[in-house]
Design goal:
Helix 4 packs parallel to helix 6. The strands form three sheets. A seven-stranded mixed β-sheet has the order 3-2-4-5-1-10-11. It has one domain: 3-Layer(aba) Sandwich (Rossmann fold), CATH 3.40.50. The chain has eight helices and 13 strands. It is of the alpha/beta class. The two termini are about 15 Å apart.
Length: about 220
């Protein structure tokens, strides 16, 4: 069994993200390793402050994985920090930058292995879309290659801010068999240790397959 996986639509570490309580509980501890890589060029300090304030209000502490470039991702200290974490959380920002930093690195391999061993893993916005094997390109809503942790699944982040026309275009562009989940801000798709999915937070999650709206039971299970 793997750890819990949380794909958050955005608006992380703010009121409404009630699911963070159970993610902390599932991690078995009170510490979160925050990864601000996606916000490397977008005032990443702001994200760190928000994470610290939020998790301190929940009775937890944070450490920061200062990985902003691919060179950082190759550092032994970064890999060691990920290897000892019980809860890793990627913030929002640029999915393209996050992918370029992590793809085919020992750091990402370590995070995936720790998750398979039971570590809690969460990503918001960019941090969510990059975990899928098909990643929604925010520049136009088409698909590109992600990091492939969540297979047969793609996430539209901040779905509440997308126009119906843009959402429809992305859904229609999905390759056959790919499940597309529109996840609003302050909302998460949670995958438990047995591979079952459910929505948590403030908004509904819309799920599409073959261009049609379907239920959460269409999401890939434990062996997919």
């Amino acid at each position: 069994m793997s750890g819990v996986l949380a794909l958050v639509g955005g608006g992380e570490w703010t009121d409404g993200c009630t699911f963070d309580h159970e993610l902390l509980e599932a991690s078995g501890g009170g510490a979160v390793l925050v990864v601000p890589t996606a916000a490397a060029y977008e005032n990443h300090e702001k994200h760190v402050v928000a994470a610290r304030n939020w998790f301190e209000s929940l009775g937890a502490s944070i450490a920061v994985l200062d990985v902003y470039t691919r060179r950082d991702a190759l550092e032994d200290a970064s890999i060691a920090a990920a290897n000892s974490a019980s809860f890793v959380y990627f913030c929002d920002g640029s999915p393209m930058h996050l992918r370029s930093v992590l793809k085919d690195t020992a750091l990402w391999d370590t995070i995936v292995q720790r998750w398979r061993e039971g570590m809690v893993l969460a990503g918001a916005g960019a941090g969510a879309v990059v975990m899928c094997d098909h990643m929604v390109d925010p520049r136009g809503g088409a698909f590109t290659v992600g990091l492939g942790l969540a297979t047969r699944l793609s996430v539209i982040p901040r779905y509440n801010l997308w126009s119906p026309e843009k959402s429809h275009r992305t859904v229609k562009l999905a390759p056959p068999g790919l499940v597309v989940a529109g996840v609003p801000e302050h909302t998460a798709l949670l995958r438990d240790a047995h591979g079952a999915w459910r929505a948590a937070g403030t908004g509904p999650v819309d799920v599409f397959l073959h261009g049609e709206k379907v239920g959460l039971d269409a999401l890939p299970g434990e062996n997919e």
